[in-house]
Design brief:
Elements (H helix, E strand, L loop, with lengths): L4 E2 L2 H4 L3 H8 L3 E5 L4 E13 L17 H4 L5 E6 L3 E7 L7 E8 L2 E2 L1 H7 L17 E5 L9 E4 L9 H4 L4 E4 L6
Antiparallel strand pairs: 1-8, 2-3, 2-8, 3-6, 3-10, 4-5, 5-6, 6-7, 9-10
The chain binds a DNA duplex through strand 4, strand 5 and helix 4.
DNA sequence: GGAGTGATGACA
DNA sequence: GTCATCACTCCA
């Protein structure tokens, strides 16, 4: 069996777009009272820095987004449209507001469905991505070739204007892995 | 194509 | 305090 490695803070303490691409093929693991569920990450989006108009951090630090300004490797979870939880992992150095939205995992498309399936809610906000918090990311040795990563503009951020909404900060795994 | 939903941030 | 907005999903 291949070694399984839990991703730590150092993995996330790098350029946001680089981390985003490498998250494809990693496994999101959710442990609840009932079960442990692991799903391969297939789609992410990067939100990178103060200048990114599509990022919550663009208007400065607030109570909601303060975790994006904190150290990497923490979850940023919030409610949008009154009913959907979004799951993000904080990246970059402490003080630099950046995060990666996990939009989809294997067998599940749409960010709101990921959190629903994995029973992720606001109580995990600001928690570190490690085994103890019940939600973490593992490297299970799946290697994603570069040509299998598709870069596209982000979704639902038209309000950020053409410059930022068209940036290729969305990364999609387009080829299913062969078993 | 359009409604639902409620926390959040801007403004007063 | 009020009001508009929103990193979405569902149903028609």
């Amino acid at each position: 069996m291949l070694s399984v490695e839990i991703l730590k803070g150092d993995f996330f303490r790098r350029k946001t777009t680089a981390v985003a691409q490498e998250l494809l093929g990693k496994f999101l693991v959710r442990k609840t009272k009932m079960q442990e569920l692991a799903c391969m990450i297939t789609e992410v989006e990067a939100y990178d820095g103060f200048a990114d108009k599509a990022s919550h951090a663009h208007r400065g630090k607030t109570m909601r987004n303060e975790v994006m300004f904190g150290p990497p490797g923490y979850w940023y979870i919030y409610l949008v449209y009154g009913m959907h939880q979004m799951l993000n992992i904080v990246t970059g150095e402490e003080g630099y507001p950046a995060a990666i939205l996990i939009r989809a995992v294997e067998g599940m498309s749409g960010p709101g469905r990921v959190t629903k399936l994995l029973a992720i809610d606001h109580s995990l906000n600001k928690k570190p991505a490690e085994r103890a918090s019940g939600l973490w990311i593992e490297d299970r040795g799946v290697v994603i070739p570069k040509h299998a990563i598709e870069k596209t503009p982000r979704i639902g951020v038209a309000y950020a204007g053409p410059e930022w909404s068209q940036k290729p900060y969305r990364f999609v795994l387009k080829v299913k892995r062969g078993n």
